[in-house]
Each structure stands twice: as structure tokens, then as C-alpha cells.
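REQUEST FORM: STRUCTURE PREDICTION
Request ID: SP-0412
Submitted by: Lab K.M.
Chain count: 1
Length (residues): 88
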Amino acid sequence: MPVFDRYKSKIKMVILTQNKNQNAVWWSPINQNKRKSEMVIRSMLKRLEKHPLSIITNVVQFYENNLLIAQFKFRYENSPKKNQEDRP
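STATUS: Completed
RESULT:
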């Protein structure tokens, strides 16, 4: 039995990346389907923080039954725009 399955997983996470980088879609582990959605989202965000994709992520969207249930925007400490704004 697979750990992730696009048809059996409870939550779908869409990772929207910077510029022209390819976006990604992750599904929650099937064994977490009985957990509350908030807990599943929290664990998926923790996995994303450890993944190289986190460096180029702009927005993360979470879907349950094809309905958007949460969205998070990322802010970059080393982005050129922020660095320009911080200059005196």
C-alpha cells in the first residue's frame, strides 16, 4: 500500500514557487487521514521546511475535497526586494 495517493489522501498541498520554477503538488500520508486537518497541515508544513523547495516557495495552498481550506504566504529574509527596502 502506498504512503501517498492522490485519490486516497485527505489533504493536497500545492506549492507555488518563485519566478519560472516548476510548482509542486504533495499529498498527505494516507495514515493521517483520521487526524484533524489542522494537524495534517502542520505536519506537511514541517516536512516542507526541511525540503529544498522551501527556499523558492512563495505560497502554499491546502485543499480538502477540492476546496481551498488554507493558504500561507512565505516571506524571504534574503530576497533582493527586502534587502533594498532595508537599506538606509
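NOTES: Residues 37-50 form the longest helix (14 residues).
Reviewed by: T.R.
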